[in-house]
Amino acid sequence: MASLTIDNVVKRFGAQTIIRGVSFDIADGELVILVGPSGCGKSTLLRMIAGLETLDGGAIRIGERVVNDLQPKDRDIAMVFQSYALYPHMTVADNMSFALRMAGADKAARDAAVQRAASILSLEQLLDRYPRQLSGGQRQRVAMGRAIVRDPAVFLFDEPLSNLDAKLRVQMRAEIKELHRRLGSTIVYVTHDQVEAMTLADRIVCLQGGTIAQIGTPNELYGKPANLFVAEFIGSPAMNILPGRLDVAGEAATLELADGVRWSLPAELSARWRAEGSRDVAVGIRPEHLREAPARFSVPVDLPVAMLEPLGSDTLVHAELAGRRVLARVPPESVDDAARRIALHVDLGHLHLFDRVTGKRLGD
Amino acid sequence: MAADRAAPEGADGSPAAAAPIAGSRGSGAERRLALGLLMPALAVIGAMLAVPLALLAFISLKGLKLGNLSQILRADFTLDNYVRILGDPGTWSSLWISILYIVGSSAVAFSLGLATALVINEKFPAQRLFRTLILLPWAVPGITATIAFLWIMQPSFGVLNFVLRTTGLVEGDVNWFGDPSLALVAVIFPTVWKTYPFFTIMLLAALQTIPRDMYEAASIDGANGWRAFRWITWPSIRRYAVVALVFNAMYVFREFDFIYASTRGGPNGATDTIAIRIYNVAFEKFDLAAASALGVLTFVLVAVSVWGFVRWQMQAVQR
Ligand SMILES: Nc1ncnc2c1ncn2[C@@H]1O[C@H](COP(=O)(O)OP(=O)(O)OP(=O)(O)O)[C@@H](O)[C@H]1O
Ligand SMILES: [Mg+2]
User: Fold this and answer.
1) Please, what is the angle between helix B159-166 and helix B142-152, to 10°?
2) Please, what sign has the CA dihedral across residues A40, A44, A49, A54?
3) Which of A105, A155, A235, B305 can pair with A109 through a Cys bridge, CB separation 3.0 to 4.6 Å?
4) CA distance linking residue A301 with residue A342, whole number of Å
């Protein structure tokens, strides 16, 4: 186990700069998830940590050691590939013990390590099989077993669950979480999947175009997105964003949206944004904060309904607010299938305001 | 004859296969249809292979060294030809020379082919051009290649000896094709030149089936360079290598052009492979029956050894 430091790391492919000076620290035993849209450089950053890509600037430290110029094998890391990259001509046991074999460990030591990993992952029955004789989930497990056998300082996962079907994904997600608790290992984990990021991470690093959009716990990113990009990226379905204007007059503040929609903010709330002064803003409302019941600070709205998406546990209502399509998440029994309009309550206490130009979060 | 046999089979197969494929019966009908459809082609190919082979076996069992077909038909059946061939020490020396020739040329051609395949498999500029160029020797007729090598390896003014002399590796002229102890090595030169691209292409195709992340995983696990080759590359291309080696061995076993155009089996029988011997027995000694017997024996030998070798290799791969 070890901590990991990414210090102002830069990566270029030809003329294109893919990673533009990224810095963050990962504590010993922490599980950090890299998320971001496709092509934002998540895999590239992970591969730089692994030593599969060179750095064009900055430094990567594992523990106290700068690893920039170390071979992958000397970095004390293990990587689980999206494709698993199991060696097809080796048995499960040989796959798992390959690194130890290359390191010159004797057979007894290798067998012991394989047995230990196999029992952690319930692979004992599969040790003599070849990868082609395994199901997708089993292969995934073997790939993790191969990493565990090495007992590395840092585990690297690149979208390890994306080749599994939905049900297996949920199961393996839970297993990875359990494994992390049990082994207490330092893990860097890349994913596309919102839910994976929210459920697994100690902290999330949200990347945007090769820079960090925000770092924080899942709740911080969800509850207080630092900018419009994170606000729209984290959360599914995504946050509703409406253009508006914040008017501050002394103690009072009003939000003015299109189509003459005006919400005056109670004093407790307006205090949050008074310092910003009057300005153009982007108003962010999560679907669950367009509620069917009133909250402590809420304003009633009556909206035309465009479409319903029943999810079972909730129903997503596509409605129109201030000239924009918005999504509301409400209990299924609160909407009638044939409803043309719906009465909802905007939870002002959970509004997010962003600078319309820079996209930065306003208020606390 | 082909059409005769194909028609009833086809008629048999099609109605059954037209029925919905349900349960075990469907697959049986499917198989019959497939066989029926294959039958005309099988019959033609079978006739083209089987008729000459049968004729060969037939001639080899007749007690007439040379004659027209009606004379041969009238001759008595006998095993004399086989006795004559198997009792001739020349046959056994030819077999030994053939083995040396195959093993020697295949070993060099395989190494060269593997090396070029590994190089071409790396990314570099003009890669496609190289891939095409490397195939050229394969397309050159054997006779042309041999004549080129006769010049290159000419004792007094050939380029090879010139290089060897100027680098001080030899003194005086090396008579490559004329020296009985060197002639086999000499004919291996053009053979390798012509056959190595086959290995290059086969092994390159195999190399390209290995995913990149296999090497990345291996480099994390501590296998780079030679160890990556030993543990990842070689096991992945091994099957292809075996197949290529078998095909090449068969090709070289019946190789005729290089040797006949350069040494005709000489000097002093030094390059007298089985293929050359069959030709000489038939057309120099005019003993067609014995040549046929040798041909039959050769066919059996090749069939058995290929079968055994492939089985052995496939078992090794399974393990
Ligand atoms: N070897 C390479 N040569 C040139 N460009 C590359 C190379 N590898 C990646 N890139 C580019 O770098 C950018 C980031 O790629 P990367 O694979 O890190 O994205 P990602 O965030 O992992 O995306 P995804 O979520 O789709 O996996 C992409 O625009 C990609 O085209
Ligand atoms: Mg990726």
Assistant:
1) 40
2) negative
3) A105
4) 8
| CB contact burial A104-136 (16+ within 10 A = b; e otherwise) | eeeeeebeebbbebbebbebeebbeebbeebee
- pLDDT confidence tier of residue B258, bands split at 50, 70 and 90: confident
Q: Which residue, among A98, A142, A188, would best test binding to B if mutated, counting the most B CBs under 10 Å from its CB?
A: A98
Mutate to test the pocket of ligand 1, among A9, A11, A13, A20 (most ligand atoms within 8 A of CB): A13
The sign of the CA dihedral A346, A352, A356, A359 is negative
**pLDDT tens column, B284-305:** 878 788 888 888 888 888 889 8
A102 in B contact zone (CB under 8 Å): yes
> What's B76's DSSP letter?
P
Do the chains contact at B227 and A99, CB–CB below 8 Å? no
Instruction: Give the pLDDT confidence score for residue A53 in this predicted structure.
Output: 93
Rounded CA gap, B139 and B134, in Å? 10
> For residues A346 and A296, is the Cβ–Cβ distance under 8 A?
no
Is A18 near ligand 1, meaning CB less than 6 Å away? yes
Question: pLDDT class for B319, splitting at 50, 70, 90?
Answer: low
Minimum-distance CB partner of A87 among B214, B216, B220: B214
Q: How far, in whole angstroms, is CA B200 from its chain's centroid?
A: 15
pTM equals 0.80
Q: Tokens representing B88?
A: 């001739």
Residue type present at position A332: P
Pairwise CA distance, residues A255 & A278, whole Å: 10
Which residue type does B310 have?
A: V
**Can you tell me which residue has the tokens 């905007």?**
A346
What CATH fold (topology level) applies to the domain B99-265?
MetI-like fold (1.10.3720)
pLDDT in tens, B194-204: 889 999 999 99
More confident position, B230 or B73 = B230
Reported ipTM: the value is: 0.84
Query: What counts of helices (H) and strands (E) characterise chain B?
Result: 16, 0
Do the beta carbons of residue B259 and residue B146 sit within 8 Å? no
Q: Please, are residues B302 and B234 in contact by the beta-carbon 8 Å criterion? A: no
**Helix axes B274-283 and B288-318, enclosed angle (nearest 10):** 160
Residue A145 to residue B277: CA distance in whole angstroms? 60
Pick the closest to residue B229 from B242, B218, B240 (CA basis).
Answer: B218
Buried b (16+ CB within 10 A) or exposed e, B201-233: bbbbebbeebeebbbbbbbbbbbeeeebeebbb
A141: phi then psi, degrees, rounded to nearest 5: -65, -40
CB neighbours of B273 closer than 8 A, spacing ≥ 6? Answer: B94, B97, B98, B101, B253, B255, B259, B265
